[in-house]
Amino acid sequence: MSSPVDLRSDTVTRPSALMRTAMAEAEVGDDVYGEDPTIVELEQRVAELLGHEAGLFTASGSLANQLGLRLLVAAGEEVVCEAQSHIVRAELGAAAAFSGITSRTWESPRGLLDVEQIRGFVRPNAGPYLVSTTAIAMENTHNFGGGTVQPLEVMQDIGEFASSAGLGVHLDGARLWNAHVASGVPLAAYGATADTVSVCLSKGLGAPVGSVLVASAERITRARVWRKRYGGGMRQAGILAAAGLFALDHNVERLIDDHDRAQRLGFALAEAVDGVVVAEHIETNMVVLELAGTPWTAAALAAAAREQDVWISAMGPTFARLVTHLDIDDDDIDRAAAVLTSLLRSSP
Ligand SMILES: *Cc1c(COP(=O)(O)O)cnc(C)c1O
Asked: Which of 86, 148, 285, when mutated, tests ligand 1's pocket best, judged by the most ligand atoms within 8 Å of its CB?
């Protein structure tokens, strides 16, 4: 039996043999004492890439986001963001649970940001009656939007508006690498639009664990205290950081292959069945299936595909997501396209 084609997420990659060798050979020390040279190198390297002063290695993207948010927003104040943002949909209320932060959201198609919408939405210094907005959160690429790339100019406008209004900006850049490779925009140009930025090493880059938060040196010093307070201080975790450094060396530029494969898969499905895939919306490594016009629910399609060793995510009643990554090759794309096409052309 062939192994499954796992398109549920780009988090499912397993570290390669070479990555494991890099991990095994990493120089390590006690990072709570600031003595793990591999972690220090990773933090500095990511900070430099994003044009910020300092970085902090974290066990997950959620932790990096939550540390970033709490640096910018005090208890009882609000962060505003698009309604499908990971920070409000997929971090289990952490901003409220950990930091007393409230949130308010607006809807936008595919998660695409619009500065005018935000300008009318925020309430800085709202006084004694309304909640005061103190930060805007952006997400690039937008995960639940289908891997959408936010245009740099829009992010710059939001950054400029925020600083004129005295608001902080957090950028959830879990897949900022994909945005960078798809658009050609330098990472530092994206980085310059926000006060705090998180990036994941464990998605498309293929590391087993880890994210990095970057910000000013002063903010990162405070984030380090909160990371320890949350129980996120790790010791000889240079073994994990080495995987991140390896990923930066080897797995960024190749994301273009994931994007090409998403295009191939998306175009094959768009051609085979009407109205399920909008091929022009495939910007990075995700293909969104909208099944409302078919007899399928997302759950039924995912279950039927799984019986034929093609694994996909049912994200909503009629919304399914396919994600390409390091462990998906051309043959996998052909298999997935064949299985999904034949299912979509039939009924459950
Ligand atoms: C995956 C992801 C994160 C972080 O997730 P963890 O599982 O906590 O590492 C944050 N933001 C976005 C947009 C993501 O897709």
From this structure: 86
